[in-house]
Please model this.
Amino acid sequence: MSPKGSDVTKMENKENKADTKVDIEVAGKIELPKIDVSKYIGEKTKIVSAETHQGAYGYYVKVEGEVLDTIGDGDNAVELRASAIIGLQTDAEGKIGWGADTKMDKFLKVMGVEHFKDLVGKEAVIQTRQSKNSETEFLTFRGA
Model:
């Protein structure tokens, strides 16, 4: 369904990642580096992007903060930053947006802005969120 009557005229999958089935003969538990994210909790970071995407479950906004640290070297380097993925809804007329008291509405109120595009350049307080399926903690923003 294409969006009607919204500011979104065309959404593209810039990354264009396709899943590929592979057979891995030897796979098992491996030791991964531990990252202590507790030192970032309560710190402020500047939001550097708030981009709209379309995925398997609909439209969403990916909000990212500044790079806080780089883990690893070369091709294995990973940038550590706070981020949030916030879903958008489509109404009966095909308009894309967010409703009152949704995750997006609450985050925008916490940040003191009217639209997610206005988040870029704002400072947000970092907090952690635990993955639903593991003990992994992710950096996100207070109110998101």
